[in-house]
Amino acid sequence: MKLIIASNNKGKIREYKDVLEPFGFQAVSQGEEHIHLEVEETGSTFEQNAALKARAIYDQSHCCVIADDSGLEVEALGGEPGLYSARYKGLPTEHERRLAVLKGLEGKENRHARFVTCICFIDEKGEEHLFTGIWNGIIAEREEGTNGFGYDPIFISEDGNGKTTASMPLSFKETHSHRAKAVKKLIAYLQSR
After folding, report:
1. pLDDT digit string, tens, across residues 93-120
2. Helices 178-192/10-20 angle, 10° precision
3. Could you tell me the residue range of the domain that residue 18 belongs to?
4. CATH number, domain with residue 131
5. For the segment 166-181, what is each residue's pLDDT rounded down to a tens digit?
6. Of residues 18, 59, 68, 69, which has the active-site annotation?
């Protein structure tokens, strides 16, 4: 089964391919299908944003599509950056967004955080199916590591042995992350069809 990944994020596309292809799914990016869209995330939840992106690609391809919306929610920041993780405070780079989170936590003891992913899968008939994954952890005191992307250099997961996600091999994230948890639910669903 071919699945179009509704994303232009190279790190996310690589993760999806690495996780899905061993199960016999042909994962291709929207770019590989010559669909060049940037869907505006106007939803008020991760679920709504994932569905918006999936529907936009499905409407052009009429193939099975996977889209997700993910974000980092930091307790002491009132759940920020949340839905705005990819454009937090309007900052242009991932590094600047990470620094904004670290600055926001200066002097705060509570460093609890979680990554959330919601995947929207649209099947051949155009029906939507949602799968959510949550990965709990804390925010590090400083950036560390070069593996991964986004907030990985400042996130220490509950199963990360005190190391940031970016300090771990990519295979660790592909096995334990919020996206991995949601993808496992998606794969179970696809295999049961």
Report:
1. 999 999 999 999 999 999 999 999 999 9
2. 40
3. 2-192
4. 3.90.950.10
5. 999 988 988 999 988 9
6. 69
